[in-house]
Amino acid sequence: MIQLLYTVIAAEMALILTLLFKTPLRKLVIITLDRVKRGQGPVMVKTVAATVFAVLLSSVYSMAKIQNIKLEAGALNPTDEVLMARHMLESSLMVFLLFLSLMIDRLHHYIRELRLLRKTMEDAKKQTRGFEDGKNGNAEELKAMGEDIATLRKKIEKLELDCETKGKEAKTAQAEADALRKQSEKLLLEYDRLVEDNQNLKNQLESIGQSSLHSDGK
């Protein structure tokens, strides 16, 4: 489960980096996302997201139960500590996965809007040139067209600012991913230590049990 979450998160981060930088690969990614959002694609994506969210809620519920046990007993046994650490790691990864999915959806949306506005801008420029070249151009229509162009430019500037903001958010998300990766490595080391302690406790209990049986037999 944890390895799968790491793989999906790494793929999403690579996808975000592809969308942020203008490369030939970005066009292919955008076309692929356009196709995914058609037909049954959105339903499948929502189903997967709902499944991940349900698993996340289950992990949070499990952590709450373990926390209640700790409050009642005053301390946790090694097995519960291992389970608590594992649930915390899985929950963090699932939250980050859902966040990156939302980032990919918004970036794709803004890039599509920016392309449509640029195309509209080019069409408006062509129409403006046609009016300027025509001898019977209407001054009022040209003025209205100029106002439309100014409005479109403002929209383009706004979208460019939004894209820049999303880019900064993506960089922040990458930094958070690195922090989560380091945290997960620490948790895995702690997990291995707790598993080893648990095994040692089991061995000690078995030794004590065998000694008791031996004493009873005598």
Automatic annotation (TrEMBL):
Main localization (coarse): endoplasmic reticulum
Keywords assigned: Apoptosis, Coiled coil, Endoplasmic reticulum, ER-Golgi transport, Membrane, Protein transport, Receptor, Transmembrane, Transmembrane helix, Transport
Membrane topology, record value: Multi-pass membrane protein
Localization (cell): Endoplasmic reticulum membrane
Presence of keyword Protein transport: yes
GO biological process: endoplasmic reticulum to Golgi vesicle-mediated transport; intracellular protein transport; protein localization to endoplasmic reticulum exit site
Claim: S-adenosyl-L-methionine is one of the keywords in the record: no
Any one GO cellular component localisation term in the record: endoplasmic reticulum membrane
Coiled coil: 107-211
Superkingdom classification of source: Eukaryota
Membrane spanning residue stretches: 6-22, 43-64, 84-104
Membership in a protein family: Belongs to the BCAP29/BCAP31 family.
Job of this protein: May play a role in anterograde transport of membrane proteins from the endoplasmic reticulum to the Golgi.
Name recorded for this polypeptide: Endoplasmic reticulum transmembrane protein
Organism: Tripterygium wilfordii
Lineage: Eukaryota, Viridiplantae, Streptophyta, Embryophyta, Tracheophyta
